[in-house]
Structure formats: structure tokens, C-alpha cells
Amino acid sequence: MRILYHANITKPEPWLAGFRAALPGADIAVWEPGAPPADYAVVWAPPQQLIDEQPGLKAIFNTGAGVDALMPLRIPPNTLLVRLDDAGMSVQMAEYVCHAVIRHVRELDLYEADMRQGNWTFRKPRDRRDFPCGVMGLGVLGTRVARALQHFEFPVLGWSRTPRQVEGVRCLSGAGGFDEFLAATRVLVCLLPLTPDTRDLLDRRTLGKLMKGGYLVNVARGGQVVDQDLLALLDEGHLAGATLDVFRDEPLPPEHPFWRHPKLTLTPHTSARTLRDETIAQIAGKIRALERGEPVAGVVDRERGY
Ligand SMILES: NC(=O)c1ccc[n+]([C@@H]2O[C@H](COP(=O)([O-])OP(=O)(O)OC[C@H]3O[C@@H](n4cnc5c(N)ncnc54)[C@H](OP(=O)(O)O)[C@@H]3O)[C@@H](O)[C@H]2O)c1
């Protein structure tokens, strides 16, 4: 069995060593133009050339949960496209989102600023019931985040494309449930895949429907937020702030107004990192399952785009 590895943002050697240990006997190499035919490819943002030169791939494994970078590529219909299915990301996402929500609700950012000024001052405690959290996307990551927020006794809502049930979460779905979801949400957490349906979804109209004093945590993809609309709603005071981990252009360009906006907290696409050991174990397990002729989880539905 031959496996190709392609990722231009990580050093390949530890990945190759990990796959060799997990799949003894497999021939694993970094992809180069003209590479001999392989059975599987493990990729992040591969070039079209890799796909074109490897028409016999049984599966392409994406080393992330989001496959939006793969969707514009022409991939043969017989090649399975498989995304990461948690692989250690959901717990990271839960801690990141809970931290962002709690920091905002408990005004820890303001306390930090006060303490730096030498001000020993108290703020009036805020009632968590006044901060219903709405999680967009009730998949692998969104469900884990919704459960984690419940743990801190925030009222939690969820929104998905098809109806979902998560115990204790007020679940709404589809276009018909969207406005009701937004209107009942004060802290909006975006965990949707980036697809034609979700691109530019968070604009003036939709963000404007959040409860007054709303807060956005975007940990999905930058393309879901209309930057200028978010800035306008922050400046008009309808939104109290946002924590943004993802951006339309990454790295965020130096001249972008997000960098200097006082109501924004930014991180460099780090809310849920791909963990090498967990990822190799998951992909190796799926390759073994496919070789035995068994189905695997995380196969991308190319029609819906995730
Ligand atoms: N910032 C980071 O570091 C980071 C790390 C990992 C992932 N991510 C992002 O997180 C996203 C979610 O990952 P996941 O593993 O949780 O994906 P997932 O398991 O595929 O879940 C996606 C959820 O979004 C819902 N959805 C999709 N299109 C929708 C639409 N048009 N309207 C309403 N709901 C829609 C799905 O609805 P159904 O339940 O009806 O299918 C599902 O509940 C990834 O696609 C990626 O972009 C970011």
C-alpha cells in the first residue's frame, strides 16, 4: 500500500514516522510532482496537480475538520474525501469557546484592565440567564461546545441544517428556525462549515437580530462573517464585542481594522489545532477499515459541501 503526504504548513518528517509506525509495511512518502501512483493521500490544502496526477486514489484524508479548501478542486467521484472527526479537537474547541464566553460574561477583560491600572473595584454580578448562548452547527464540535456551555448553566440553543436533538439544548433548524434562534441568542458561537449556504451568513441582518448587547464567537471560518457589517454593529453598540479565531484572509492583513478594534479579541486560528498523534491514529484506523472493506466515519458529502 502506498500513501502520499502533503501539507505545506507542517514539517513532514514526524508525520511520516508516525504513519510508518501506525501502518507497518506501508510505503509512505511526501508527495512530489510525478510521484508514482498511490492508494491514499493525507493532505492539507493540496494543489490540483496532486489530484490530477493520482486518479486512482481510494481516499483523500484531510488533516482538518473543515474541507472548504478542498471543495473547489476537481476530485474523481470514486475517490472518498474524508475529514477529521474530532481527533482531539472538540475538547480544545469546548475550552476555547467557554473561555471566551466566560471572559465576556464575567467581564474578566475589564477586571484585567482595572488591575493593571491598580484599581481594586467590583462590578455588579451579571446573571447567566441573561446570556443565552446559541451554537450554530450541532455537529461533532458544536455539540461538544453546547454541552460544555450547559455545564456552566448558561441557557443553550442550537441551530443546524437538519433537525438535531441535544438534551437540554433548545434545538432549531433550517431557514425556518433561523430568525427564532437568532432572536433568542445573546452570545452567538459559529461552528458551521464554510459552504455556499453559510458564506456571508453573518451579516448586518442576521447579527442585527441577536439580542441587544450580543456577542459573537467565531471559531468556524472567516468567510461566514461580513467584516464591515460586524464592525458597524460593534460601533453602533448593538453588539458588545466579539472573539474571532478565523478570518477571510489569514494571516489577518496588517491594515485590517480588526487588529485595532477595542471590542475585538483575536487569536490566530488556534482554537482547535490538529493534533498529530490523534490524527495519525484516526487516519491509520480508517485506512485499515477501508482495506477490510468497512465503512468509515467523516466521509464528506460533496453535494452539501461538508
Ligand atoms: N478554528 C479552528 O481551529 C477550527 C478547527 C476545526 C474545525 N473548524 C471549523 O468547524 C467546522 C465544524 O466542524 P464539525 O466537525 O463540527 O463539523 P460537522 O460535524 O460536519 O458539523 C457541521 C454542523 O453544521 C451544520 N450545518 C451545515 N450547513 C448548515 C447550514 N447551511 N445551516 C445550518 N446548519 C448547517 C450541520 O447540520 P446537520 O447536523 O444538519 O448536518 C452540522 O450540525 C468545520 O467545518 C471547520 O470549518 C475550525
Layout of SSEs?
Blueprint: E1 2-7, H1 12-22, E2 27-30, E3 40-44, H2 48-53, E4 59-62, E5 80-82, H3 89-105, H4 108-116, E6 133-136, H5 140-151, E7 156-160, E8 170-173, H6 174-183, E9 187-190, H7 204-207, E10 214-218, H8 227-236, E11 239-244, E12 264-266, H9 276-291
Parallel strand pairs: 1-2, 1-3, 3-4, 4-5, 6-7, 6-9, 7-8, 9-10, 10-11, 11-12
Helix pairs in contact: 1-9, 3-5
The structure holds NADP nicotinamide-adenine-dinucleotide phosphate (NAP).
Explain what you see.
The protein has 2 domains: 2-87 and 274-291, 3-Layer(aba) Sandwich (Rossmann fold), CATH 3.40.50.720; 89-266, NAD(P)-binding Rossmann-like Domain (Rossmann fold), CATH 3.40.50.720. It is 31% helix and 17% strand. The chain has helices at 12-22, 48-53, 89-105, 108-116, 140-151, 174-183, 204-207, 227-236, 276-291; strands at residues 2-7, 27-30, 40-44, 59-62, 80-82, 133-136, 156-160, 170-173, 187-190, 214-218, 239-244, 264-266. Strand 10, helix 8 (227-236) and strand 11 form a beta-alpha-beta unit. Helix 1 crosses helix 9 (276-291). The mean pLDDT is 98. Bound molecules: NADP nicotinamide-adenine-dinucleotide phosphate (NAP).
